[in-house]
Design brief:
mainly alpha, 453 residues, binds 4-fluoro-L-phenylalanine, Amino acid/polyamine transporter I, globular
């Protein structure tokens, strides 16, 4: 498809439909699916968490993603300016989203850095089926001083180079190759994991809900994870779809992207949890889970095969992380460009320097600064919790309220159906979701998760 000129100023655009799906899915599929989902499932009782997560993805994921697509494509502006143009009273939603992107980028690159570091560790053969050995390898990396900061810097530089180049040149091209390869590799690893002796126990843990574990806190964790994983609630999908042509079928995209994202999360869970149980690792260990269990799965494949798969896995994890952090960085950068009229390169550079400082703090909080706590969490966990359990759900709440109550049904309908040229049979159901169901679920879960009800 040809590049099309957009509104007043010529804005970069996705050049093909599949390019947008891959970029949006690339934003969604990332560390959230492969690193965060399995460890949260492990920490929060497995099945109950997974069930509520799936409910959130189906009910909220689709509805909110569509709402963000509609806003982004209609205004052709990144989130802050999109709201400013539509209804000034909602500008704060965009601002909150930029803040959330900024906070997430204050620790996400640390995990991205671990992933890059692991490529080299696996090359050097630093992996074993022994929990103690793997725990030590991960502990030495994450709790260290210079080494994790070095890898974080490498990871951030990769982001800077791609985002500085703009949308279609960098992000779109990269996403098209990475996503399918990642998927294929995950399938192979799931097969390896579930065929380990004792793996069934892990599968049961993951899929059979124990309702006694379904507390407000678990539900909030699942809700936050759904937002984080789908890149929702912070205007990221608004920003991405602002680069979209008026011909795109938004409804289809809002189904395909969450479906892809959720399959990857479930595959990652099926890769990690059964192997964790089978090999005797600790399910509740938190952020280190992927980095200790996955190398152990490779170790069961023998030194050569294990190494080849291991390298491939961490290369792909790094790439999946990249396509997500690119989108996070893009939220902040496009705000500075559209709203503050900065030049792209300057926006990328200045943002990245500040982010690097935040990442240093987040990284050290896993080691020598672990004693410094905010509401009982180290800096890393606090940033993660604040963005995902608070800012994203609150952002999502207001985005759906805006589309449901304030924008005007006819205007929404015109945009979502491309001026009546695509069918959307359940338009009214979706409006009902935006008006009532999604805001009510979010509000209830938020209130019970933070202990108010
Ligand atoms: N969805 C990404 C992941 O699962 O890793 C993280 C993310 C990207 C969250 C972009 C939010 C966002 F706007």
């Amino acid at each position: 498809m040809e590049k099309q000129p957009t509104t007043e100023k010529s804005r970069d655009q996705f050049v093909s439909r599949i390019g947008f799906i891959f970029a949006a899915a690339g934003s969604a599929v990332g560390l959230g699916n492969i690193w965060r989902f399995p460890y949260l499932a492990g920490l929060n009782g497995g099945g109950a968490f997974v069930l509520f997560y799936l409910i959130c993805v189906i009910v909220i994921g689709f509805g909110l993603m569509l709402a963000e697509f509609v806003i982004g494509r209609h205004t052709q502006l990144s989130s802050v300016d999109a709201f400013k143009k539509l209804d000034k009273r909602f500008t704060f939603v965009g601002v909150m989203g930029v803040l959330a992107a900024f906070i997430i980028m204050g620790y996400y690159p640390v995990v991205g850095g671990w992933s890059v570091a692991y490529i080299f560790k696996i090359v050097l053969g630093e992996f074993s089926t022994e929990p103690a050995v793997m725990g030590e390898i991960f502990g030495a990396l994450s709790g260290g001083i210079m080494s994790p900061i070095f890898w974080t810097a490498i990871y951030l530089i990769m982001n800077i180079v791609i985002v500085a180049k703009g949308i279609s040149a960098g992000i779109e091209k990269a996403s098209k190759i990475m996503m399918p390869t990642l998927f294929a590799l995950l399938v192979i690893l799931v097969i390896r994991s579930v065929t380990l002796p004792g793996a069934m126990e892990g599968l049961r843990y993951l899929f059979v809900p124990d309702f006694s574990k379904m507390t407000g806190e678990v539900m909030l964790a699942a809700l936050g994870q759904a937002f984080f994983s789908l890149s929702l609630g912070m205007g990221c999908m608004i920003t991405y779809s602002s680069y979209l042509s008026k011909k795109e079928n938004l409804v289809q995209s809002a189904i395909i992207v969450p479906a892809m994202d959720t399959s990857v999360a479930l595959l990652a869970g099926m890769m990690i949890i059964p192997a964790t149980v089978a090999l005797g690792f600790d399910l509740g260990q938190g952020p280190g889970l992927v980095f200790v269990t996955v190398p152990a799965i490779f170790a069961t494949m023998g030194p050569v095969v294990g190494r080849i798969f291991g390298i491939l896995f961490f290369v792909l994890l790094t790439l999946a992380a990249l396509t997500s952090s690119l989108s996070l960085l893009e939220v902040v950068v496009s705000y500075l460009i559209d709203n503050r009229k900065w030049e792209r390169k300057r926006a990328v550079m200045i943002t990245s320097i500040i982010l690097f400082l935040m990442c240093i703090a987040a990284s050290l909080s896993m080691g020598i600064w672990s004693g410094f706590q905010i509401i009982g969490k180290n800096i890393f966990d606090f940033l993660d919790w604040f963005a995902n359990s608070l800012l994203l759900p609150i952002g999502g709440l207001f985005i759906t309220l805006y589309v449901g109550w304030f924008w005007g049904k006819d205007k929404v309908k015109t945009e979502v159906t491309n001026n009546e040229s695509v069918k959307f049979a359940i338009f009214n159901v979706w409006m009902f979701l935006c008006k009532f169901v999604i805001p009510i679920i979010i509000a209830l879960v938020l209130l019970s998760g933070i202990g108010i009800i």
